[in-house]
Amino acid sequence: MPTTLSDACSMLADAGTAGRVMAGGTDLLVDWPQRAHEHDDTIWIDLSRVTPLRRITCADHVLRLGALTTYWDVVQSEQAAEAFPLLKQAARVVGSLQIQTRGTWAGNIMNGSPAADGVLALMAYDTTIELRSTAGVRRVSLDTFYTGYRSTVARADEILESIVLRRHRYRIQYFEKIGTRQAQAITKVGLALTQDSADHSWRVVMNSMAPTVTRCPALEGVLSAQQPMAGPDAWLPIIDADVSPIDDLRSTSRYRRVVAARLLHSALADRCDWIGQ
Question: Which of 8, 87, 207, 239 is the 20 to 30 Å CA partner of 219?
């Protein structure tokens, strides 16, 4: 097992396409019983002994989460909770307490699930990820990281080293997860949004509504234009321009669309006087 990030990058480069990186391992253990045969030739690089990666720093209006930072680390961090409250909200609804104390924000990003609650909150902020390889560091905006279902722009030789959030002043910060239960349930519909106090720009993000966690530019445009909405149903055609929910074991496309519209209207009607009640 590597004890430095440099060693981990070298091991991953040597492993080639067979190399896989593991942090908390929570998603891997869920997946393993059904798909163990797919990992017969995998070379696992376990980062758990690269202790500098489990670090939260806040300086110069930037919050930095190391790759081994867990959900519970953020819950306990006063700096993170004060600067980016949606992170704490998301962390408290990710699985059980056992998952929160072992699962990592970096793993949530790299796993690429369209239902990822951590990514939902992170993408509502100005978030960049730093990918490290033997060639150096590459920085990618989180909202351009995904290319499709469980597919990203990360190369096979890159390790997510840090998650970097640039702090802004926000007029509105909102996070909501709808699942079968209030805890230990995979998201059926998730919504996070922020409005910058300085330039009044919006970030609207949804999960479990498309092949990836995704920003919603059509909704952001409507909000920036302060377009009045007569009621929840008025949001439906705009939602349809941004996302394409499916029918699956957890829910239906219609349910997801209708609930997303009601979440949006409920979140904004009391915060934006130009939106109709």
Answer: 87
Q: Record the tokens describing residue 169, joined without a space.
A: 């002043």
Q: Confirm if 79 and 114 have CB atoms less than 8 A apart.
A: no
Phi, psi of 114 (to 5 degrees): -70, -10
Q: In what order do the strands lie in the sheet with 202-207?
A: 170-178, 189-196, 202-207, 214-215
Tell me the domain boundaries of the chain.
50-166, 170-270
Tell me what pLDDT residue 36 has.
65
The model scores a pTM over 0.90? yes
Residues 174, 15: Cα–Cα separation, whole Å: 42
pLDDT, tens only, 151-204:
999 999 999 999 999 999 999 999 999 998 776 789 999 999 999 999 999 999
Asked if residue 114 lies in contact with residue 211, where contact means CB atoms within 8 angstroms, the answer is yes
Backbone angles phi, psi at 160, to 5 degrees: -70, 115
Token readout for 250 is 């957890």
Homologous superfamily of domain range 170-270: CO dehydrogenase flavoprotein, C-terminal domain (3.30.390.50)
Angle (CA) 183 259 222, round 5°: 120
Q: What is the pLDDT of residues 211-237, one digit of tens each?
A: 999 999 999 999 999 999 989 999 999
**Three-class SS state of 92:** coil
CB atoms within 10 A of CB 176: 19
